[in-house]
Every structure is written in structure tokens, then in C-alpha cells.
Amino acid sequence: MTRSTLPVALVLLAFAVAGCSNDSPSAGTSGESAPPPDDGRFAVLPGSGFRSDGSFDARMTCDSPADYSPPLVFRHVPTGTTELLVSMVDEDKTSPQGDPLIHWVEWKIPPTSAGLTEHVKPDQAREGLNDLHEATYVGPCPPPGQTHHYRFTLLALSKSLNLPYGSAVRTVLRAAKPFVLDTATFVAAYHRRTLVRRERLVVIDLSSARALALRLWPARQLSPLARRPALSERD
């Protein structure tokens, strides 16, 4: 079978990855979210690092090398709480167990805590081995161009959990279930920007290019790399 050729043309295929489309890192608007009115109930709320519509800022996701754990605000922890437990699951991604994918479980949070600071784990707190095989917070990472929704749940527990750091997250959640005094939740979305691959085909006629180069730069001024010596000039 004959191959198709371009006898006097050099074909250059240039691939430019246009970093991203015009989609913003998240679907929300910039700025920080304003806390909702205090209704006197046990609550967990997005902290000051979330966007103004309550969606994730990119720095708390896989789109940032930091992938910071998010700031959270706690309100009205029930009397009798011994410790707090927080979890985050992806409601749009199914785990191998058939339930929502678990990104994060942290327990032994003091009941006197007013919340969690961005990228800070309380000294005594422990984190479970999540569905992504890491015993730490792992931020949102939906496929490019998709929006996933992540549910945060705060549990007020009447008894401390004496499970070791790195325990499987479902083991931790099962152990906590009999001691739940109250539950608070909220959902935050993250829209992952779309990567757009653009291709450009450039065809250069070498004979025309050389003729133009010789007009612009006489042969004696061409560098050795640009000018191939004639046979008479070679050693």
C-alpha cells in the first residue's frame, strides 16, 4: 500500500491545550458566602472560604495542589454532646458499596468548637480511611464539565469513639450511630471547568520559505544551522 506524501512540504501539527474554556472554576459567583439567619437549631454551615452562593472555592478541590479542607461553622451544639463528627460525601458518585462516595470523616472534634478552620485539624481529632484510600480530607473532583453535590453532615455524639486514626470510614459511622444526639447537614456544589483541546495544522512549503529567507538574509549572513554548505565548501 502506498503512503501519501507531501514531497516539498513540511507538515507541523501543533497541539495547543487552551488551559480551560471560559467556565469559571466553580459554578458560583466570586466572594464569600453570607451566613444564613440563626434559627436557634443545631447547624453546620459553610465557612468564609466558600463562594457567595455556597459552592466550593477551587482551593478546596482537586483543581488546587493544596486541596485544603474547608472552613465550617457549628451552631447550637446540643447539651450532653461528648464529641462531634463531620463527614462529606459525593451525592452524585456511587461508591463500590453502592452508597454515596465518602470523601472525609473526622471525629473527636471538641463539643465546644465553634467550627473548623480551613486546612486545620484539631489536635485531638482523628480522620478515617475514605473511599479514595486516604485518611484525610480529599476535595471534590467531578469529571471536567460536570457539577457534583457534596453533603456535609455534623453529628453530635453522646459518647466518645475510641477508634484509631485511619479506621475505615464506614466502621466509624456505624460505631457513631447509636450515640447520635442530633444531626445537621448542608450541601455544597462544585462545577469542574472543561478542558478544551484545540488543534492547528500548519503547512509550510520549504522551497518558498527558503526563497523568502534568502531575500531577507543573504546567504553569507545565514548561520551554519540555517545554511547548508555547498559541496565545494565542505572539507
Could you explain the architecture of this structure?
The chain is mainly beta. The protein has two domains: 9-17 and 196-228, no CATH class; 43-191, Phosphatidylethanolamine-binding Protein. Helix content is 8%, strand content 32%. The chain is built from two helices and ten strands, in the order ββββββββαββα. The strands form three sheets. A five-stranded antiparallel β-sheet has the order 7-5-4-8-9, with helices on one face. A three-stranded antiparallel β-sheet has the order 2-3-6, with no helix packed on it. It has a two-stranded antiparallel ribbon with strand order 1-10. A hairpin with a 5-residue loop joins β4 (83-94) and β5. The longest helix is centred in the C-terminal third of the chain and has 11 residues, at 206-216. The protein is globular and about 90 Å long. Mean pLDDT is 81; it is low at 1-27 and 219-235.
CATH 2nd-level architecture of the largest domain: Alpha-Beta Complex
Average pLDDT works out at 81
Helicity level: under 10%
Q: Spatial order of the strands in the main sheet?
A: 7-5-4-8-9
For the structure shown, list the relevant keywords.
single chain, about 240 residues, mainly beta, Phosphatidylethanolamine-binding Protein, 10 strands, about 10% helix, about 30% strand, disordered N terminus, disordered C terminus
Summarize the structure.
This protein is mainly beta and 235 residues long.
